[in-house]
Design brief:
Blueprint: H1 5-24, E1 51-55, H2 64-79, E2 84-88, H3 96-99, H4 108-114, H5 120-125, E3 128-129, E4 135-137, H6 151-162, E5 167-171, H7 178-186, H8 188-214, E6 222-225, E7 228-231, E8 234-235, H9 241-255, E9 261-264, H10 272-284, E10 288-291, E11 302-305, E12 308-312, E13 315-316
Parallel strand pairs: 1-5, 2-4, 2-5, 9-10
Antiparallel strand pairs: 3-4, 6-7, 7-8, 11-12, 12-13
Length: 323
């Protein structure tokens, strides 16, 4: 539960004053002024002049709303009455108003429906006023869909409020979606950091592209683009069966520079042209290709025993021994 300690002190002092007056029959004029809130001129900022602070967390139940609310309260004590506003953008289960023990009679849903037609004075009147001086725009009482409160409307509300208040504190939803991205884009420090991060990501992507361009691919024309494998600049899925076979063999040969043996399963699916391609690549790369395929001739091609070729086309191979 969030309470303003200064206001609690004022209430207690006022209660003691009333008891003293009732007991003595005397009256006294006593005023209280917040010591850490100097009087400031009532000025309004130009559009976009206020500072936006967004509080976010990767999951619910992490204390995000408590942090955002206490931050808004602390800033209010520092800045003074009516200089800070907190906006609850959690459209499903926002509970800033509950934490502040306020009745959410007017919410973000009400403001979003009229943001294009209401004046600044009307907008301010639709905000709830906490006893601390903090202005509050609660989340809808009942869960609403993103279609009812679009992300661009939230951005418009925040933009209007930052022109009216020194600081706009935003309690964000716990789900990383378009609404959260829009809110984060409104935040000053997050915007600067995200811009720097975007530049770093783009620079990194350029380094990756250059590294891929310099790399020697096992098959000419093989590359990468937009997270997909390409062949000749086209998606690999659009390549012919023969091209896919050539790429697969090229990658297999390059991945086994010492063991020059490649095994092809389901060799019965290869036609004569594909078999010719395999034979040519085997010769060019000085490797053996073992193909599993169905044969109806009843003949056995090569028999290997104890690591040695024992017969070819059922003809025994006589090993010449050194004298």
């Amino acid at each position: 539960m969030v309470r303003d300690p200064w206001d609690a002190f004022v209430r207690q002092a006022a209660a003691l004053k009333a008891k003293a007056e009732a007991a003595t029959g005397l009256t006294a004029e006593i005023s209280f002024e917040r010591p850490d809130a100097p009087v400031r001129p009532s000025v309004r900022r130009t559009p976009g002049g206020g500072r936006v602070v967004a509080v976010m967390a990767g999951k619910g139940g992490s204390g995000k709303t408590v942090t955002a609310t206490n931050l808004a309260m602390a800033l209010t004590m520092q800045r003074g009455d009516g200089r800070v506003v907190i906006v609850d953008t959690d459209l499903q289960f926002g509970d800033v108003a509950l934490l502040l023990q306020m009745d959410p009679s007017r919410t973000l849903l009400d403001v979003s429906r009229r943001i294009d037609e209401i004046s600044d004075a009307k907008l301010e009147s639709m905000l709830l006023r906490h006893e601390s001086g903090l202005r509050v725009l609660p989340a809808p009482v009942l869960p609403v869909s993103e279609e009812e409160v679009p992300a661009k409307v939230i951005a418009a509300v925040v933009d209007r409020l930052r022109a009216l208040y020194d600081i706009v504190v935003i309690d964000t939803p716990p789900i990383f979606d378009d609404h959260l991205i829009t809110v984060l884009e409104q935040a000053d420090e997050v915007e600067q950091r995200s811009r720097a991060l975007s530049e770093a990501i783009n620079a990194r992507a350029e380094e990756v592209s250059q590294a891929i361009a310099r790399a020697q691919m096992p098959v000419p024309g093989l590359g990468f683009g937009d997270g997909a494998v390409t062949l000749g600049g086209l998606p690999f899925e659009q390549a012919s069966d023969a091209e896919k076979l050539e790429v697969s063999l090229g990658i297999a040969i390059a991945a086994n520079p010492k063991v020059r043996v490649i095994r092809i399963r389901d060799g019965s699916l290869l036609d004569d042209q594909s078999l010719a391609t395999v034979a040519q690549m085997a010769r060019e790369n000085n490797c053996q290709v073992w193909i599993e395929r169905v044969d109806t001739t009843g003949k056995i091609g090569i028999v290997i025993e104890d690591g040695m070729v024992a017969a070819v086309n059922e003809e025994p191979v006589i090993e010449e021994r050194a004298p």
